[in-house]
Amino acid sequence: MTWELVLFLAAAINGVILSLMFIISESKRKRFLGLYLLMFSITILHYVNYWSKLVNPPVLVTWLFVTSNWLMPFSFYYYIKKGAKLNHLPFHLMPALIFTLYWLAMRYFIQAPPSYYPIANQVIMFCKISLFTGYGFVILKTAKISSINKLFMLAYASFVIGLIAYSASLKFGFYTLRLDYIICAGFVLLTYGITYFGEYSFIKEKIRPKYSSSSLTKEDGDYLVQKINKVLEQNKYYKDPDFSLSSFAEKLGVPKYRISQALNAFSDKSFSTLINEFRIEEAKQKLSSDATSHLKLEAIGEEVGFKNKVSFYNNFKKMVGKSPGEFREEYMHQSA
Questions:
Q1: 198 vs 19, 64, 147, 159, 305, CA distance in Å?
Q2: Domain total in the chain
Q3: What are phi and psi of 302, to 5 degrees?
Q4: Domain-embedded: residue 167
Q5: For 217, which DSSP code?
Q6: At which of 153, 182, 207 does a domain end?
Q7: Does residue 217 or residue 35 have the better pLDDT?
Q8: 106-136 burial, b if ≥16 CB within 10 A, otherwise e?
């Protein structure tokens, strides 16, 4: 194996590791970026094996090699375009499915004459380039292109240009292995380089010590704040008087420093403030409900998670601007 192939192999392995870091993240968009990088890295592995003839992989591995290209455009689309609808995903998978069926048919069921394959390869390459170009056009027309997204579009475009250059070199007879290396090196350097640059804070977060003080990205912070609120709303952990940040971190599977960091930076409130807000909102519902009108104020405070009457009264007055008794009396007066 030449030194060029060793470098490509190392880059592809690095890409697989990098892609897995994104795939296991909590962000849906970053998972699609991870899928894109994984398929890209598998494609590079395929090129390395094609050039070096190292192994004759099993059929399933070969299928993944030849189909990986077709999974890249839609995964890139879902990464760039925030709010893209997941219920449209089956339609985005259709090109990969069609190509897979074609590949299986040609491999196992159809005995085409030798003259067929050069023409078929040209048609397939044209379809692949059209697919990548079409997605790129849709992204440019419909997605909000930030400065980082522009860099990722550059990496995406480099791959499309590489496909076009490769196809043109074969069609017009100036293909050489050295040219193939140069084309591949171009989009490999751009794709991995821009990924590291554009998502550096995410990567740094994954590899830093557990209790480092480095900040979250805005996207990850907003996502975590939404998740915290959703879990609290659904499970009502705050109704336990002994509920704490440590116990919540364990239930959520997120380090407690990360929860505090997300809330402080992206919701401008502490964990204790958020919990008391949930408790007060539940108390307001009980104070304005006929079903709980027989309960004393202290009992309502205990039901929503406050340990004592003083804490309940003080927090209620602070957040609502009136005491629990005044709030209930006002409701009764309005509903009378």
A1: 14, 27, 9, 17, 43
A2: 2
A3: -70, -40
A4: yes
A5: P
A6: 207
A7: 35
A8: eeeeeeeeeeeeeeeeeebbeebbebbeebb
